[in-house]
Amino acid sequence: MSKMTLKIEGDTHVIVTRRFAAPPEAVYRAHTDPKLIQKWLLGPEGWTMPVCINEAKAGGKIRYEWTNGKGGGFYITGEYLELEPYNRIVHVERMHLPDPTPDNHIETRFEADGAGTLMTMRMTLPDGKTRAAMLATGMERGMEASYVRLEGML
Amino acid sequence: MDNLDGAFSALADPTRRAILARLATGEATVNELTEPFEMTQPAISQHLKVLEDAGLIVRRVEGTKRPRRLAKGGIEAMDQWLAMLRKALETNYDRLDEVLAGMEKHKKGKKR
Question: In chain B, where are the structural domains located?
Fold first, then answer.
């Protein structure tokens, strides 16, 4: 059984869930501490994140820059809207390819699940077309979490 | 990949997803596809054109009818693509598992 689920909801949402063996406090920290983020939020093999700015406070800035070490790269910028340690994060982000994509509004919840954590990430895109574009190109760059279970739609 | 972009855009519309759901159960004519929707036949035909251009469905000629069915290749290509995206995301979270395990160890080490 896979620990991760990925589904679309309505016309503008993408929902990702994932279980972790560590408690919510640790998973929350791994999402807000730049030194920790640089260790895992990397996408495909061979990519690194040389720049990681993450000001974990309401209004704080986010900037992640990735490179594949062969001249390929891109970055995202964003802002924090709300943070409730260690339960909930609300932020917006956009990719720069290099033109900015429409804002992706993301609410991430961390709930205790036995000794571990159930994380639920709810992304809201401005419209169906933007979501479709994100699904089609977003993770090609190794980033945006998106998946549609074809069986669910057909 | 251009065609995959088209496929995802085509799927961004709930009516088109419903049409695909209907076609997943078998071939159907435009009339049959129009029936369950509160939409005109030209509107449905427009949706069918988008799905066809995206390589998700194909049409057959039978007299005056043009029954549509799912294009196997198109659906399979999308399925593979989605599996790849899903894998990239899982790779991130597998790495996070290791980071979390490392944090736990560090914490225990400090307590001692």
Answer: 2-111
